[in-house]
Every structure is written in C-alpha cells, then in structure tokens.
Amino acid sequence: MELSHLENVIPSKTGLIEFIGNVVTKRGQDVERIKEAMVEADRRMYESGIQAVGDHVNTSISAEVKSKSKIIYHTFVEIICMKDDEVLNKIDEARDIEFYFDPNHSSITPHAPYSCSKSLFKTYKKSISDDNIISIHNQESEEENKLFRYKSGEFLKFYEKMGIDVDCFKAQVRNSIQSYLNFLPASNHTILVHNTYTSIKDLDFINRMARKVTLCLCPKANLYIEDTLPKVQLFLNQKFDIALGTDSLASNDTLSILEELKTLHKANKELTFLETIKWATINGAKALGLDNEIGSLEVGKKPGLVLLKNMPNLKINDSVEVQRII
To answer: In terms of C-beta distances under 8 Å and separation of at least 24 residues, what long-range contacts does 263-271 make, across chains too?
Structure first.
C-alpha cells in the first residue's frame, strides 16, 4: 500500500536489484500524496472483488487508510537488518510500528533472506509468538540463489554500493530457501512470496521440513521486475496451498487478482479454473488466518461475492471481467 504512489514511476524488466534501488531512491516524502494513492489503491482493490489483503509495510503511514477500509488487512511489518549490532533495535522498531495496526491482524516478519543477517533470523525466532504469521519474499531473483550458493552475483555489488559489509557471509552451497528456512520458527504459518526461482529440490526440502507453508505467487510483478514467471507446473503436485498476490503498484499496473489469474492461465494451459479459484479465495484466507470468516460460501461466513462475466465453459481468458456483487 505504501508504495502505491510509485505507479508508472519505476522502469519495468530491470531485474530485482535495480528495482530495489529504484524503490529506495524514488519512494516519496509527500505524505498527503502517498495517502491519496493508498486510498485510491484500496478503492481499486475493493471494486475488483478483493476482500482481504496481506500488506507489507516499513512505516505506519497506511494505518489510517486501513482502519477505514471495507477490506480486511493483515499488516506485515518488515524487518530489514544486515548488521548484527542493530538486530535488537530493528526488532523493537518493528514492534513500535506494529502498535499502530489492528493487533488481531498484524505481525512482524523478516523482509527477505538477502536483507536479513543470520543473527537477525536467530533473534527473531526467539522474539515472536506462535500466532505471528510470517510472510517473507522468497527467491524472487536468481541473484538471490547465486548469493547463497556461491557468494557471487549482483547482490555483492549492491551491498558494496549501500555500504553493507558482508565479509562474514559464507557461501552455503545451496539455494537460499535451503539456507534460511531452518532459522524461522517451526510452528508459525509461513507465507513464501514470489518463488520465481524455486526449484523442485527446494520444494522437496520444504516438504521434508514439515512446515505450515503457503506459496504466494505474484505473476504480473514477476514479469514487471524479472520478465519471467514461476514454474507453476512444479507446484501442482505438491502438498502446499498456493495463493495469489499482486505485489504493489511499484511493480504492477493493476491490483486485480483476476488479472493475475489471466496471466497464469495464459502461460500454463494445463491449469484449470476449479483449481486456481482456490488460489484466489480460500487459500489466501487460510494464509492470513481468516478462513473462518471469508474465502468460501459457507454458513456463518461473511465473504464478498463477485461475478465473473464472459467466461465460457469455466475458462479464464482475456475477455473475462469481474463485478463485485456484495
């Protein structure tokens, strides 16, 4: 939400590292403009049928908009920390920001494996309760895997440019997810976001760890940033729930789950609507701990209701449109 003012600002298909640099340098300081963009983003999401959102934040600026929204928000306060002597302060800062959001629908989370030190992961593991939902950016770029496997690639140049010392970081000889997942609390529900470069060996590793994991795919953002899509066919026979996200308007030109479905179906003809509708509804509700309230049409729940128009034979194509009914 807090990056909504960056719509049409950051160039597409530059790769993750240049994208991150652009976010850091181009995110605005005009509070009123940022709030106006968030209000508009909230309106667009609701009208497109979105009933609940997991939203990553670095500040408390979105709290007021969320408190007035018709959408249920679960706010993930990100921790970014590469310096061991700053770990406790960064966790405290995240808790201070979390204070501004609904305590029943907020948690603190590491941002990404490339932006958090091993010390941060270890301290974080001891600092959170069992009901703290984790949502971490995972394998959004092959550069992340290069960093963990070989200690090579563009991230090293990025760290140098940002003045971050990674001399103590050692190559793990394995992909990032296999390097950091053990440091996350075992009992907490974990949402792995993006998974653009997640391999079958990575999925087997996650399975062996027996974690409560949801794989969240953000296909349009992946195309916008890296110009590639996750290998969805690898996920189809796994035991994980798959959910869908949009990332932000910094990396997308819509905030529509229908458009994410269209992108996936166009690229993966083997997908069926009866399967992917779960990715767009109940699986997301489960991931956010909201499946007793929304996500399906059942007695006692209060979900939204949308109509998908121009949809012959339950096939997702470019002509399909969404209309909110309730």
So the answer is: 263/219, 263/220, 263/223, 263/229, 264/217, 264/219, 264/229, 264/232, 265/315, 265/316, 265/317, 266/318, 267/219, 267/229, 267/232, 268/232, 268/233, 270/233, 270/236, 271/232
Residue with tokens 């501004």: 100
Buried-exposed string 73-99: b where 16+ CB fall within 10 A, e elsewhere: bbbbbbbbbbeeeebeebbebbeebbe
Residues in the chain: 326
What's the CA gap between 36 and 61, in Å, rounded? 11
Instruction: List, run by run, the mean pLDDT of 10-residue segments along the chain (326 residues).
Output: 98 98 94 98 98 98 98 98 96 98 98 97 96 98 98 97 94 97 96 98 94 97 98 90 98 98 97 97 98 97 96 95 96
Q: How far apart are CA 15 and CA 88, in angstroms?
A: 31
